[in-house]
Specification:
Helices cover 34% and strands 33% of the residues. By secondary structure, it is an alpha+beta fold.
Length: 248
């Protein structure tokens, strides 16, 4: 074989190797050999098993992650994706109820909180004065400790002072609202789009920035029609199906 032939053959062989590994692992997931939620063997073990270097294994795993078959968690390993959730968006949307119907339970984790002056569109949504003050929270939604959504939420002040502490305590905005006298609330509007996530959103959802997320902009109101929350939520697109029901 000439040097030119070797130069052309080597990349083809490497390409075939990572494709073959990805196909073998995908077959293992489909057959149940690698169950949902379990961790795949470490990269060095897979490299030994398939007789390749770790770079080739990593390329195979990255390809599978891009397809939503696995998730790669730095420092922990590569895990088989384990669930997809149907979430209902309706007038009385409660994500906890949707999760319960799917046999799952979840909680909210407050990542950030601050009192701040809000931009114009948030002020309009909350029906407060331009540059008015609101409580801003960045919240992570977890199911089986797997990030399902991350959101930026605004609540008018001083009405909802102390809300963040209640969310931390209960893991639920609905329960936190109830503790502050809002026993019921409904969704006034939802705007849904598929977008590529910013780096911080992708990192929170443990996914690459190249994988789209479902963005939902929403406004919730109390029984008197007064806005209580304006939120932008980013759902992991490979884990969630949104069902819009106007009569709920």
């Amino acid at each position: 074989m000439t040097d030119d032939q070797k130069t052309h053959t080597a990349p083809q062989e490497r390409s075939s190797a990572w494709n073959r590994i990805a196909a073998r692992l995908t077959d293992g997931i489909a057959s149940g050999m690698h169950a949902p939620g379990t961790r795949l063997p470490a990269e060095h073990a897979l490299a030994e098993q398939f007789g390749v270097n770790r770079h080739t294994v990593r390329r195979a795993l990255s390809s599978m992650a891009a397809q939503g078959l696995v998730r790669m968690v730095q420092g922990s390993g590569t895990f088989v994706e384990e669930f997809a959730v149907d979430l209902v968006l309706g007038r009385r949307t409660r994500h906890s109820e949707s999760l319960q119907l799917a046999g799952l339970s979840g909680r909210l984790q407050v990542l950030e909180e601050e009192s701040c002056r809000v931009r114009a569109e948030v002020a309009r949504a909350l029906d407060i004065a331009p540059r008015g003050t609101a409580l801003r929270m960045k919240v992570l939604g977890l199911v089986k400790e797997r990030p399902l959504h991350v959101s930026e939420r605004f609540f008018p002040l001083p009405r909802f002072a102390g809300l963040a502490a209640l969310v931390r305590q209960t893991g639920s905005i609905t329960k936190a609202f109830a503790a502050l006298g809002v026993e019921d609330y409904s969704r006034r509007e939802s705007r849904i789009a598929a977008v590529l996530p910013a780096a911080d959103i992708a990192a929170a959802l443990l996914q690459p920035v190249s994988r789209p997320v479902i963005q939902v902009r929403s406004v919730n109101v109390d029984p008197a029609g007064t806005p209580v929350e304006a939120a932008t939520t980013f759902f992991a697109g490979d884990l969630v199906t949104l069902l819009v029901q106007s009569d709920r």
